[in-house]
Amino acid sequence: MPFEDSVASSSQSADGTCHLLECDFLALSALSQPSAPSSSPPSAFVAKLRAKQLVRMTVNRMRPLRPTGIAPPSPIRMTVHTAASVGSAATVYSFQTSSSECIGSHTGGSSSACSRTHSATLFERQALLHFLQCERGASCAWLASGGELAEIGALVTKFRAQTDSVDIPSKVAIRVYALRNKVDSALALGGAVTAHDLHATEFYAALREYSALCDVVVHEAEELVLVEIGASPASLALTTFSRFKETVAMIRGFLTGSVALPSARLDELPARAFADLVVALHSQRAYAQELRAAAAASPELRKLIAPCFRMDSPELAELHWQLEADFDFKAVRAKIPVKVCWDLYTEHVNKLAHIERMLAAQVMAKSELGAHRQNEVAEMLREAVRTICLPAQHGASCQPAQHGASCQPAQHG
């Protein structure tokens, strides 16, 4: 069967279509070759698929090559020090990852190798999500200010480089680069912000598009945890916690962008922006309740996730409490400078990233332990089979009984 015919036949089912659109084909040369003169022209589905694969090939060629056997990053190294923040001491968490260290020490068996692969993918997705969340917040504040805040512009450059430093799926990479081009174009000479003063519109559009991208990464991580690794109280808590952290990071982007907006442009925010803030705050509260319920059932989880419910900075705690009480972000923005708002929320988000990484390490440790136990059971079964067959190795003849005869040791000459 010709390659295009097999592709077209696979596209008849929804599952086949999803598989063909999402997988990276190895037979790209066959896909790009024209059909034989006698065959019918390729279908619209195959033409669309061919175009998508060519785009994916182009993006992958532009990105630096990464080793295929990459080890999972180590848990976040928390560089903790004291810094002055609004007149008080605050703990600063520095988010760092290292892909040169490997979690786990299993060396044998396909199950443990598969588990290590899942570990690498999960930690890469968590790092990608965290850097995208930081890039979103900095980009929103930069757009809202009209590119006037040099400190925020430096943060945008920093977080873009961090996002590019991790492995990005092709479908996410295409959207990331397109979104960055939109942000840069809006701030360029003659752009939507600089020429038409659309600070609020462009800031809100970037917030929504970055949030949709983050949701894609969160969903992929959820599938990996629940489908590939397996559902358990710890894995369910991990997926809920990732959603909880995403809502906090989204609120950071919204509030920092709102504070960076010129006062004259604040009323130009779309009406839906306020609704999005309310939904995010309610979602955060709902996820917190789910996490508290999970923690109540497991002392181990309770000890791990308890810090996420506490804001270490009194200034941030008061600010967030007022925001949850009356949703009046206009009153909140009047009390705090842009950089201070960013620093306070980022400190809290980095702490959540640390907890998320520890939760993931716990889930993967239990997954590797389960795989190790499966290997032990398989080894016990093999040992039992060897024990049963041991008499045959010592010259015993164990044949089915015939006419009342029983198994007897073989008689030696």
Which helices and strands, and how do they pair?
Layout: H1 3-10, H2 14-22, H3 28-32, H4 44-62, E1 79-85, E2 88-94, H5 110-144, H6 150-164, H7 170-187, H8 199-229, H9 233-260, H10 271-297, H11 299-305, H12 314-326, H13 329-333, H14 338-388, H15 390-393
Antiparallel strand pairs: 1-2
Helix pairs in contact: 5-6, 5-8, 5-9, 5-14, 7-8, 8-9, 9-10, 9-14, 10-11
What descriptive keywords fit this protein?
two-stranded antiparallel sheet, 413 residues, 3% strand, 2 domains, mainly alpha, 15 helices
Question: What would your notes on this structure say?
Answer:
The chain has 413 residues and is mostly helical. The chain folds into 2 domains: 3-62, no CATH class; 79-371, no CATH class. It is built from 15 helices and 2 strands. It has helices spanning 3-10, 14-22, 28-32, 44-62, 110-144, 150-164, 170-187, 199-229, 233-260, 271-297, 299-305, 314-326, 329-333, 338-388, 390-393; strands at 79-85, 88-94. The protein has a two-stranded antiparallel sheet. The chain is globular and about 85 Å long. The termini are far apart. Mean pLDDT is 74; it is low at 1-39, 57-113 and 403-407. This is Nitrate/nitrite sensing protein domain-containing protein. Residues 128-363 form the Nitrate/nitrite sensing protein domain. It comes from Chrysotila carterae (Marine alga).
